[in-house]
Design brief:
Length: about 240
């Protein structure tokens, strides 16, 4: 009797630890219900939040840009560029490989309509002279070298301009430097004529550091939405508008 009692107690302990094979355990009388996942754009775009942050708002650190609130045309253009090989990122290329143009534009409209708060700016790490150089290039360019100002395309408030020019404030310094470098070396392209490639090639490395450092250190204005459109004719022919 003691041996039988010991065997029963041992079996009970094994069951409690979950070591009995499923076939030997009691099965529930009704199957568990799977959670229902809503088929919405918000749910589908959860894949984007792994890198771009919750709702695409990102942070002001690292190499992943904010996509929430960017112009729909710009976002669609970049997805197409990843799909067509003008921009290089294996994860992005995989995600968009089989997306239609219609769905790409639907994604662009979804993120463009998100009006979310921005993180605080990054602390300035450059000298006053370098920051002033960055500010001058942003607002005035460098006529002697044929470099237009950033505000001529990206809006006076640097929050972007419709239909396809992105805002440059609220982006991480490292991301800005990396993108300038990609434009400059030809690792990133747009539909011809590739205006940003032309501009970036004329920028010296210290210019890129100055512009990125100044932009990353600026607070966002009260109205963070893109401007209605370029106020003046564009300083260069730009294929992004053709997309």
């Amino acid at each position: 009797m003691d041996r039988l009692r010991l065997s029963l107690l041992s079996l009970a302990a094994v069951c409690a630890l979950g070591l009995v094979p499923p076939s030997a355990q009691a099965q529930p009388s009704t199957p568990a219900k799977r959670p229902i996942v809503e088929d919405t754009m918000a749910q589908r775009m959860q894949a984007c939040t792994v890198c771009h942050g919750q709702q695409g708002r990102a942070t002001n650190q690292g190499f992943f840009p904010r996509i929430a609130g960017k112009p729909a045309g710009y976002l669609a253009n970049q997805l197409i560029n990843f799909r067509e090989g003008r921009r290089h990122n294996s994860a992005m290329a995989y995600l968009v490989e089989h997306m239609s143009d219609d769905y790409v534009h639907e994604i662009g409209r979804y993120f463009a309509e998100l009006d979310l708060s921005y993180p605080p700016p990054q602390p300035a790490t450059l000298s006053k002279e370098a920051l002033e150089r960055g500010r001058t290039l942003v607002f005035h360019g460098d006529t002697a070298r044929g470099i237009p100002s950033c505000v001529q395309c990206h809006g006076e408030r640097m929050t972007g301009a419709l239909p396809a020019f992105p805002g440059l404030l609220g982006l991480p310094r490292d991301y800005l430097v990396a993108q300038f470098g990609a434009w400059r070396t030809g690792q990133r392209h747009a539909v011809q004529p590739d205006c940003m490639h032309t501009v970036a090639q004329k920028l010296a490395p210290e210019d890129i550091t100055a512009v990125a450092g100044w932009l990353a250190a600026q607070a966002l204005p009260a109205d963070t939405k893109p401007a209605a459109g370029p106020i003046k004719p564009l300083p260069l022919a730009c294929g992004s508008g053709l997309q």
